[in-house]
Design goal:
Structural class: alpha/beta
Order of helices and strands: HHHHHHHHHHEEEHEEHEHHHEHEE
Distance between the termini: 35 Å
Strand order of the largest sheet: 6-7-8-3-9
CATH architecture of the largest domain: Up-down Bundle
Number of domains: 2
Helix content: 55-70%
Number of helices: 16
CATH class of the largest domain: Mainly Alpha
Radius of gyration: 32 Å
Length: about 525
């Protein structure tokens, strides 16, 4: 579910401090524009009342005041969009950098196409949200309050009428927001489903053609597109209803204020210039609110995408600040509950030792490995590293010390060299030596092509080489000998045994080592 605008902005500010600059600039420009609006209304009312009183000499001063106020307001309004865009661009880059960093460290949690959709269009929509919707929301909070205070100072009765009408807005917006949130979330989910489905169809089109199922796949693509159309129309219907409700409320409030002002002018209980100022400013109280509602619905994709982007970025928000160990550490598992396991795990892994984690499928071996690599959180209990709770250690620093081999490793980069070095400056002879130690003779310039040119065993050994070549202090390896023949398995185990790191190997069968942790159902 998407959040309220205030909560979403608070999370954006925590995720990227650059958002605060955008909010401050927006608030300053909005305040200047509101002051210019009040000055315009005062100048217009003063000029008209002077003309009615046949005091032509005083009109010139009001006209000069009107021109100055108009120029000031035009400058503030004209600068709001370019300034907002200039300040939102660094936020977009910051969010994208943080999100990509999380994906590199912790991996994706959805399909490749949905992840690409989130990182590209999703973050672009968040930028559009900051450029258009956020300034409108800030102005909607500042301008009505300022105008109401001025109206109450000039004419308390009109101020009470407008304030009473404005107090109905939270009720309208809450009711409409309940429907809008579901529609916006569904539209974003449909966009992600369409991206994922389209990618799957394109990648598998050759196979689908060969089995004569391509037409059914295209029809499924049409169905997903139709669902996106339906959710988009639902969002537009809610936006229209919201706009209609605000227009109706604004019209009723303005009409009521105009009626009371007219009657009081006839009785002579209010001056003409005061009545004109109040009448000019009354509809302006609702204009920022209508604009904010319109921009909020127009930025619906950005609202839903921002929730997913923040969920990705905040995965390490609770990371500690203690330094990571500088040598192979001792690791203790204290009453650690993994997944649905009811029995806590208690174990100690001595520095530089090799421990096997064994057990049947589904008992939490891979989850335990992910917890040790700081890629998942336990249900309860703790992992203690050299006497320090793992949750208190800086996550980035810990990831730099850990060599992590996932059960289904993903090779990052365009070539074998890229996949092994992972951005580190390593000589080719070092990379070749590590691959040779793992019984793997491949061209370092061989393209990966998403792993299609490598067998499962070769991919696993390339990923293991990336772990070992960095000389980590901790090795957490999930089924490192899977898909390997006897000779390759022996080479892999020998390379792991040669490491001085604290090593934990997840496997279904026992591996020669110092100790083992056995998980059972």
């Amino acid at each position: 579910m998407s959040e309220s605008p205030a909560a979403l902005l608070a999370r954006l500010r925590r995720a990227s401090p650059l958002v605060t600059r955008s909010l401050v600039a927006t608030g300053v420009l909005g305040a200047v524009a509101t002051i210019g609006l009040v000055a315009q209304a005062v100048a217009i009312a003063g000029a008209i009342s002077t003309l009615v009183a046949h005091r032509l000499a005083g009109v010139t001063g009001y006209l000069a005041w009107l021109l100055g106020a108009t120029a000031l307001r035009a400058l503030a309004v004209g600068l709001s969009e370019p300034v907002g865009a200039a300040l939102a661009a660094p936020v977009r880059r910051d969010l994208r950098t943080r999100a990509l960093g999380q994906l590199v460290r912790r991996g994706r949690t959805s399909t490749v196409d949905a992840t690409v959709q989130l990182i590209t269009r999703g973050i672009d929509e968040v930028e559009a949200l900051l450029v258009a919707s956020v300034p409108a929301l800030v102005l909607a909070a500042l301008a009505p309050a300022t105008l109401l205070a001025y109206l109450a100072a000039r004419d308390w009765l009109s101020g009470v009428i407008v304030a009473a009408s404005a107090l109905l807005l939270p009720v309208f917006m809450w009711l409409l927001g309940l429907a809008a949130k579901d529609a916006m979330d569904e539209r974003w989910r449909d966009q992600q489903r369409l991206a994922s489905y389209f990618g799957d169809v394109v990648r598998g089109m050759i196979v689908l053609k060969s089995v004569n199922r391509s037409r059914a796949a295209v029809e499924g693509l049409d169905a997903v597109g139709a669902s996106l159309t339906d959710s988009t129309m639902a969002t537009l219907r809610v936006a229209f209803l919201s706009s209609f409700a605000l227009e109706l409320l604004s019209s009723l409030a303005t009409a009521l204020v105009a009626l009371t002002l007219g009657l009081r002018l006839v009785r002579g209980s209010i001056s003409l210039d005061a009545a004109l100022v109040v009448l000019l400013l009354t509809p302006e109280v609702f204009v920022p609110l209508r604009r904010a509602a319109s921009q909020y619905h127009a930025s619906s994709t950005g609202v839903a995408a921002a929730t997913d982007v923040l969920a990705l970025i905040e995965r390490d928000r609770s990371a500690g600040t203690r330094p990571a160990p500088t040598s192979a550490p001792r690791i203790e598992l204290i009453d650690l509950v993994v997944g649905a396991r009811a029995e806590p795990i208690r174990a100690r892994v001595e520095p530089g030792s090799l421990v096997t984690v064994r057990g049947p499928s589904g008992v939490g071996k891979s989850t335990l490995a992910a917890i040790l690599a700081r890629l998942a959180e336990p249900v309860s209990g703790s992992v203690v590293v050299d006497g320090v709770d793992l949750a208190e250690i800086d996550a980035d620093a810990w990831h730099e010390r850990v060599g992590w081999l996932a059960q289904e490793p993903v090779l990052r980069g365009a070539t074998i060299r890229d996949a092994v070095t992972q951005g580190r400056h390593l000589e080719d002879r070092v990379v070749r030596s590590m691959l040779a130690a793992l019984d793997l003779d491949v061209d370092l310039d061989r393209p990966l092509d998403e792993g299609a040119t490598l067998s499962a065993g070769e991919r696993r050994r390339v990923a293991l080489a990336a772990c070992l070549v960095g000389e980590p202090l901790v090795l957490v390896l999930d089924e490192p000998t899977s898909h390997l023949d006897a000779a390759s398995e022996a080479a892999v185990l020998a390379a792991i045994d040669a490491s001085d790191a604290t090593r934990l190997i997840v496997t279904h069968r026992r591996v020669a080592g110092d100790d083992e942790i056995v998980l059972s159902r």
